[in-house]
Amino acid sequence: MPSARSIASALATTRVQVIAPPHLGSTAVAALEVRGIDARIAEPPREPRPNRAERGDRTDAIDAALGHDVIAWALDAAPGAALAAELAAVCARAAAAGRPVCLLAPPPHGTGRAAIERAAALAYLRAFGAAVGHDVDAWLETVVLLVRFGLPAGPRVAVVAPPGSWLEAQAIAIAADAELGGARSPLASPDDPTDVVLYEPSLGPPPGGTPALAVPVAARGELAGDAAVLHGARPALGAIGMLGRAAERIAVGLGPAPAAASAELAIDRDRLSRQLAKLPPGRDQRRLGDHDTKVLLSAYGVPITRQAVATTPSAAVKLARRAGYPIEVKPFGHDLPSETAGCPVEHNLTSDAMVRAAFTAVLVAAGRAPSDASGVIIREAPPAGRELSVSFLELPALGWTVVLEGGGGGPAALLAAAPAPLRLVDAQSLAAQVAASRAGDPEPDRVGLANLLRRASHLVVDLGDRLARLDLPRVIVGGRGARTLVVDAGAELR
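Now predict its structure.
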């Protein structure tokens, strides 16, 4: 990859190609030209043709038309999977040249297959080096940052501001907003390493003695004059986040992690082989239940609830005593729905008598007779924490994809995706989007969640010839220092 200095020098005279809806495109070009940046409208790419050779020819044509320019691309809707897969090649070549595509797109939201595919398409472009964001002001500042200052090494930001200045007030407000939303502040603490230092040029020279990229920022555009500065603290932080995450991705490699990276995970191959040997051959059984799915997960080091199967009330009591009260009981089997879809579960059982009663209750609720040798799962009571749903799907054109959902389906519900198997940076990025349930709660165990997601993503890719889908409908993310684990799981077989 070229050095940051050579990239910044080359970008200083670079033209910006704006691909956007007409009104936004003309506004963006005018805004960039006012700041001394050569910009022009470029023709937006159309949906791809079905013929693979024609798609390759069109991608080459886009590359030739854009040349060595910076691409500022704004979408009025998220791209489809086929278009994202095609344009990933353009994004990858731009990223390798140190000038990531600056992509503005609506944030993924909603539920259902269409929403998941939109989130996955954007995640795919991000994985191939695009700097993706959802705020138009931050998008414009991303272009200015890239052209005027070059590509930062990462997204970590420190703000240098004298007491009582507008920049200090903005930094305090931004950190407070993040804390109120249960998220991590985008600003680095004084002892943390940093990639970019934001400073107000009218308040003094840029700070010295740090390898971070020094970037000046003005409160508003009309106060900046002709100086090369970013406009507004919040858009500037958004721009640094977009480009910094793209730079991190470029540094570790583009696209999903290589399948061979699973060698780093210390997989229990013996346990995995024993469990795979138990899977039914052919199409006799298409669904794998909670317990057997968790055995596969545990072979990959994915943290799961401690549990075992009992086929009699007496055996259930023995297992409950061994696990330690309180415990939970649910039916065992491959033909049961997930817990979120109605699988019966008896919670907070604290005595032998309650376990015996629950043994019968969950089997009857599942439509089974207690006398037909049906089993139940005895498991530890899960820890408290933020509850999420994780799915691993093989999507057309995009391949295996990790989908993270949570928040109850409202406007603020979490929906995030990344291509599998996950690189560590992608696992960390997904985990970083999980906020505390309420302001003042301890920060979620994002390290544990990233580890869980990464390991499970390698499982589905490694076993892709046997698994058609993996679902973790209940993942509990504990507070910092607490456990993060899979509570409910299931898989579809090929």
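The radius of gyration is 26 Å.
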